[in-house]
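EI: anyone free to look at a 239-residue chain?
SC: sure, send it
EI:
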Amino acid sequence: MSGSNSSSPSAAPGASAVADEPLGLTVHSMPTPQQTLEAGEGRRTGRIRMLLVMLVCAAPVIASYFTYYVVKPTGNASYGQLIDPQRPLPALTAVGGDGRPVDLRSLKGQWLLVVVGQSGCDSVCEQQLYLQRQLRESLGREKDRLDRVWLITDDAPPPARLGGALQGATVLRVPQAQLAQWLAPAAGHQLDEHMYLVDPMGHWMMRFPARMDAAGAAKAKRDVERMLRASSSWDEAGR
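SC: here you go
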């Protein structure tokens, strides 16, 4: 009984102390006008950066539309025939000079001047390869933006006499039946009679007249130069 009475007075002061303790409050300062302004500018900067990234990603598409619908050659201004609608590069597997498979889509990123022919390379083929090389060289400092491509349609090795003519060119083997999914000759002509211009996105977009001569190559050069100007920030020189 005495133990019970002695514990009560000692507990009461503790409870009273807890009850009487003031409630603690944390006071947060309001942001200054300068801080509010800086936060707003930060959000705007972030949005601008996001828009710039989106524009960079969309640049090839914008350039494509500009090339085809604004700078598009018309009438007598164009020597080559513009292909409309565009014909995108299909998922074709070619064979390189070392016998290894090559995804033809790996050629994207650069303007391409394409010649097609059998490995034996007759006089028409030799003329095409010669004009292809001369046309590229005539572009001067812009020539590194244009790759020469020879697509061989059979399995035989090219003759040794073409060694010099093919220096610096990309030579791949693709069966002609597969190429028909992408390239096509003009009515009444064969695939190997033309030269084909392909944009950096892999779209076949122009076909030059069959059995082109030196005078025709000079006209074709003007078409190529027009396309290169329209896409000056589009491709990567020297891929």
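EI: Strands lie at 81-88, 93-95, 101-103, 111-117, 146-152, 170-173, 195-198, 203-207.
SC: 👍
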